[in-house]
Amino acid sequence: MEFQKLSTEALSSYYGRTNVFNQNPKLRLATAVVNRSDLISEVIAQKGHTFHFESSDIKNGSNQQRYSVDDEGLKAMDVAAIDLDDHDPKGTIKVRQVRDHLELEDLVHAPRILPEPRGGSIHGWLKGVYRDARGFELGTLNSTLLAVTMKRQSMKWKSLALGYIADIVTMAHTFVIDLLRMVCPVERVRTGIMSLLTGQLMEKYKAAISHVNFLLEIELDGTPATLNHYFNDNLEKW
Protein backbone atom coordinates (compact mmCIF):
# COMPACT_ATOMS: atom_id res chain seq x y z
CA MET A 1 0.00 0.00 0.00
CA GLU A 2 1.36 3.41 -0.96
CA PHE A 3 0.36 4.99 2.36
CA GLN A 4 2.29 2.39 4.39
CA LYS A 5 5.33 2.59 2.11
CA LEU A 6 5.58 6.37 2.35
CA SER A 7 4.95 6.29 6.09
CA THR A 8 7.84 3.88 6.58
CA GLU A 9 10.13 6.06 4.46
CA ALA A 10 9.09 9.20 6.36
CA LEU A 11 9.79 7.59 9.73
CA SER A 12 13.13 6.23 8.50
CA SER A 13 14.07 9.55 6.83
CA TYR A 14 14.53 7.80 3.47
CA TYR A 15 13.66 10.90 1.52
CA GLY A 16 15.65 10.15 -1.64
CA ARG A 17 13.61 7.19 -2.85
CA THR A 18 10.77 9.31 -4.18
CA ASN A 19 10.07 12.91 -5.15
CA VAL A 20 7.14 13.07 -2.73
CA PHE A 21 9.26 14.43 0.11
CA ASN A 22 10.85 17.08 -2.12
CA GLN A 23 7.46 18.21 -3.35
CA ASN A 24 5.93 18.08 0.15
CA PRO A 25 8.59 18.94 2.78
CA LYS A 26 5.94 18.79 5.53
CA LEU A 27 5.88 15.01 5.09
CA ARG A 28 9.45 14.75 6.44
CA LEU A 29 8.12 13.61 9.80
CA ALA A 30 11.33 12.22 11.28
CA THR A 31 13.18 15.46 10.60
CA ALA A 32 10.39 17.57 12.11
CA VAL A 33 10.39 15.46 15.29
CA VAL A 34 14.18 15.58 15.65
CA ASN A 35 14.22 19.35 15.20
CA ARG A 36 11.46 19.78 17.78
CA SER A 37 13.34 17.51 20.19
CA ASP A 38 16.49 19.59 19.78
CA LEU A 39 14.48 22.71 20.50
CA ILE A 40 13.01 21.50 23.79
CA SER A 41 16.43 20.28 24.88
CA GLU A 42 17.88 23.73 24.23
CA VAL A 43 14.99 25.56 25.91
CA ILE A 44 15.12 23.44 29.08
CA ALA A 45 18.90 23.80 29.31
CA GLN A 46 18.88 27.58 28.84
CA LYS A 47 15.51 28.72 30.21
CA GLY A 48 13.83 25.77 31.91
CA HIS A 49 14.79 26.78 35.46
CA THR A 50 13.09 29.27 37.77
CA PHE A 51 16.27 31.06 38.88
CA HIS A 52 19.47 31.51 36.93
CA PHE A 53 22.30 29.49 38.41
CA GLU A 54 25.07 31.59 39.91
CA SER A 55 28.19 31.83 37.76
CA SER A 56 31.74 32.45 38.94
CA ASP A 57 31.47 36.03 37.60
CA ILE A 58 28.53 36.77 39.89
CA LYS A 59 30.31 35.16 42.86
CA ASN A 60 33.34 37.36 42.26
CA GLY A 61 31.18 40.47 42.15
CA SER A 62 31.67 41.38 38.49
CA ASN A 63 27.91 41.19 37.97
CA GLN A 64 26.11 43.41 40.45
CA GLN A 65 22.56 42.53 39.34
CA ARG A 66 20.40 41.28 42.22
CA TYR A 67 16.77 40.50 42.88
CA SER A 68 14.52 43.29 44.04
CA VAL A 69 14.33 41.77 47.53
CA ASP A 70 16.45 41.98 50.63
CA ASP A 71 19.88 40.36 50.90
CA GLU A 72 18.38 37.20 52.31
CA GLY A 73 16.50 36.56 49.04
CA LEU A 74 13.05 35.17 48.42
CA LYS A 75 11.60 32.87 51.00
CA ALA A 76 10.51 29.39 50.03
CA MET A 77 6.89 30.32 50.75
CA ASP A 78 7.20 33.26 48.32
CA VAL A 79 8.45 31.01 45.55
CA ALA A 80 5.73 28.48 46.26
CA ALA A 81 3.19 31.18 45.48
CA ILE A 82 4.66 31.72 42.01
CA ASP A 83 2.67 29.80 39.40
CA LEU A 84 5.00 29.41 36.45
CA ASP A 85 2.50 27.16 34.72
CA ASP A 86 0.29 30.17 34.00
CA HIS A 87 0.35 32.13 30.76
CA ASP A 88 2.68 35.14 30.97
CA PRO A 89 2.09 37.65 28.13
CA LYS A 90 5.40 39.32 29.00
CA GLY A 91 7.35 36.08 28.75
CA THR A 92 9.35 34.80 25.79
CA ILE A 93 9.22 31.01 26.20
CA LYS A 94 6.59 29.48 23.92
CA VAL A 95 5.62 25.98 25.01
CA ARG A 96 3.97 25.26 21.65
CA GLN A 97 5.49 25.64 18.20
CA VAL A 98 2.85 23.93 16.05
CA ARG A 99 -0.74 25.05 15.45
CA ASP A 100 -3.42 22.65 16.72
CA HIS A 101 -5.96 20.76 14.68
CA LEU A 102 -9.53 21.44 15.75
CA GLU A 103 -10.09 17.78 16.65
CA LEU A 104 -7.04 17.83 18.96
CA GLU A 105 -7.74 21.03 20.89
CA ASP A 106 -9.41 19.23 23.81
CA LEU A 107 -6.65 16.62 23.97
CA VAL A 108 -3.34 18.46 23.82
CA HIS A 109 -1.73 21.13 26.00
CA ALA A 110 -2.93 24.65 25.22
CA PRO A 111 -0.45 27.20 23.80
CA ARG A 112 1.00 29.53 26.42
CA ILE A 113 4.06 31.64 27.11
CA LEU A 114 6.28 31.20 30.17
CA PRO A 115 8.51 33.80 31.83
CA GLU A 116 12.29 33.97 31.56
CA PRO A 117 14.36 32.67 34.49
CA ARG A 118 14.78 35.23 37.25
CA GLY A 119 18.10 37.00 36.89
CA GLY A 120 20.76 37.71 39.49
CA SER A 121 22.19 35.55 42.24
CA ILE A 122 20.47 32.34 43.27
CA HIS A 123 22.29 32.34 46.59
CA GLY A 124 19.79 34.56 48.41
CA TRP A 125 16.87 32.37 47.40
CA LEU A 126 18.68 29.22 48.55
CA LYS A 127 19.25 30.88 51.93
CA GLY A 128 15.52 31.43 52.24
CA VAL A 129 14.75 27.82 51.31
CA TYR A 130 17.29 26.58 53.85
CA ARG A 131 15.85 28.76 56.65
CA ASP A 132 12.34 27.48 55.98
CA ALA A 133 13.50 23.83 56.01
CA ARG A 134 15.69 23.81 59.13
CA GLY A 135 15.04 21.33 61.91
CA PHE A 136 16.93 20.09 64.99
CA GLU A 137 19.57 18.15 63.03
CA LEU A 138 23.24 18.97 63.68
CA GLY A 139 25.91 19.19 61.00
CA THR A 140 23.70 17.97 58.18
CA LEU A 141 21.06 19.39 55.88
CA ASN A 142 17.40 18.53 56.06
CA SER A 143 16.85 15.55 53.77
CA THR A 144 13.94 17.30 52.06
CA LEU A 145 15.96 20.39 51.11
CA LEU A 146 17.17 19.03 47.77
CA ALA A 147 13.68 17.87 46.82
CA VAL A 148 12.24 21.32 47.62
CA THR A 149 14.86 23.24 45.63
CA MET A 150 14.64 20.83 42.69
CA LYS A 151 10.86 21.15 42.56
CA ARG A 152 11.03 24.95 42.61
CA GLN A 153 13.72 25.08 39.93
CA SER A 154 11.78 22.74 37.63
CA MET A 155 8.39 24.43 37.85
CA LYS A 156 8.33 25.04 34.07
CA TRP A 157 9.11 21.47 33.09
CA LYS A 158 5.51 20.29 33.08
CA SER A 159 4.29 22.92 30.61
CA LEU A 160 7.39 22.50 28.44
CA ALA A 161 7.09 18.70 28.33
CA LEU A 162 3.34 18.70 27.67
CA GLY A 163 3.82 21.38 25.02
CA TYR A 164 6.47 19.22 23.39
CA ILE A 165 4.36 16.06 23.25
CA ALA A 166 1.39 18.14 22.04
CA ASP A 167 3.50 19.34 19.12
CA ILE A 168 4.65 15.79 18.33
CA VAL A 169 1.05 14.55 18.39
CA THR A 170 -0.03 17.42 16.14
CA MET A 171 2.84 16.72 13.72
CA ALA A 172 1.85 13.05 13.52
CA HIS A 173 -1.80 13.91 12.95
CA THR A 174 -0.92 16.45 10.26
CA PHE A 175 1.29 13.86 8.58
CA VAL A 176 -1.53 11.30 8.47
CA ILE A 177 -4.00 13.81 7.05
CA ASP A 178 -1.61 15.23 4.43
CA LEU A 179 -0.35 11.85 3.30
CA LEU A 180 -3.85 10.41 3.09
CA ARG A 181 -4.93 13.43 1.04
CA MET A 182 -2.08 12.78 -1.39
CA VAL A 183 -2.58 9.03 -1.89
CA CYS A 184 -6.38 9.21 -1.80
CA PRO A 185 -7.62 12.24 -3.75
CA VAL A 186 -11.31 11.21 -3.60
CA GLU A 187 -12.69 13.17 -0.65
CA ARG A 188 -15.59 10.83 0.17
CA VAL A 189 -13.30 7.80 0.34
CA ARG A 190 -10.64 9.74 2.26
CA THR A 191 -13.19 10.95 4.81
CA GLY A 192 -14.39 7.39 5.37
CA ILE A 193 -10.87 6.09 5.89
CA MET A 194 -10.03 8.91 8.27
CA SER A 195 -13.14 8.24 10.33
CA LEU A 196 -11.98 4.64 10.75
CA LEU A 197 -8.48 5.70 11.77
CA THR A 198 -9.41 8.51 14.14
CA GLY A 199 -10.42 6.31 17.08
CA GLN A 200 -7.18 4.33 17.03
CA LEU A 201 -5.08 7.45 16.51
CA MET A 202 -6.68 9.19 19.49
CA GLU A 203 -5.90 6.21 21.71
CA LYS A 204 -2.24 6.37 20.65
CA TYR A 205 -2.12 10.12 21.27
CA LYS A 206 -3.67 9.72 24.73
CA ALA A 207 -1.18 6.96 25.58
CA ALA A 208 1.76 9.20 24.58
CA ILE A 209 0.48 12.11 26.69
CA SER A 210 -0.22 9.76 29.61
CA HIS A 211 3.35 8.45 29.44
CA VAL A 212 4.74 11.98 29.58
CA ASN A 213 2.58 12.71 32.64
CA PHE A 214 3.92 9.51 34.23
CA LEU A 215 7.52 10.62 33.65
CA LEU A 216 6.74 14.09 35.01
CA GLU A 217 5.26 12.60 38.16
CA ILE A 218 8.41 10.54 38.72
CA GLU A 219 10.80 13.41 38.05
CA LEU A 220 8.93 16.21 39.82
CA ASP A 221 7.06 14.49 42.66
CA GLY A 222 9.35 11.57 43.47
CA THR A 223 12.50 11.46 45.59
CA PRO A 224 15.49 12.96 43.72
CA ALA A 225 18.06 10.30 42.77
CA THR A 226 21.13 10.12 40.55
CA LEU A 227 23.90 7.67 39.68
CA ASN A 228 26.23 10.47 38.61
CA HIS A 229 29.24 10.27 40.97
CA TYR A 230 30.11 13.91 40.23
CA PHE A 231 27.09 14.96 42.28
CA ASN A 232 28.54 13.62 45.54
CA ASP A 233 32.00 14.89 44.62
CA ASN A 234 30.68 18.42 44.12
CA LEU A 235 28.50 18.22 47.23
CA GLU A 236 31.53 17.40 49.38
CA LYS A 237 33.33 20.49 48.06
CA TRP A 238 30.62 22.72 49.52
Structure in words:
With 238 residues, the chain is an all-alpha fold. The protein contains 10 helices and 2 strands; from the N terminus they run H-H-H-H-H-E-E-H-H-H-H-H. The chain has helices spanning 2-11, 20-23, 29-47, 56-59, 76-80, 123-131, 145-153, 157-183, 187-221, 229-237, and strands spanning 93-94, 113-114. The protein has a two-stranded antiparallel ribbon. The protein is elongated and about 75 Å long.
Alpha-beta classification: mainly alpha
Q: Gap between N and C termini, in Å?
A: 62 Å
Q: Taking Cα atoms only, what radius of gyration do you get, to the nearest Å?
A: 23 Å
Helix content: 55-70%
Mean pLDDT level = 81
Biggest sheet statistics: 2 strands, antiparallel
Strand order of the largest sheet: 1-2
Please provide the count of β strands: 2
**Shape verdict:** elongated
- SSE pattern, N- to C-terminal: HHHHHEEHHHHH
Give the strand content: under 5%
**DSSP helical segment count:** 10
The low-confidence parts are 56-77
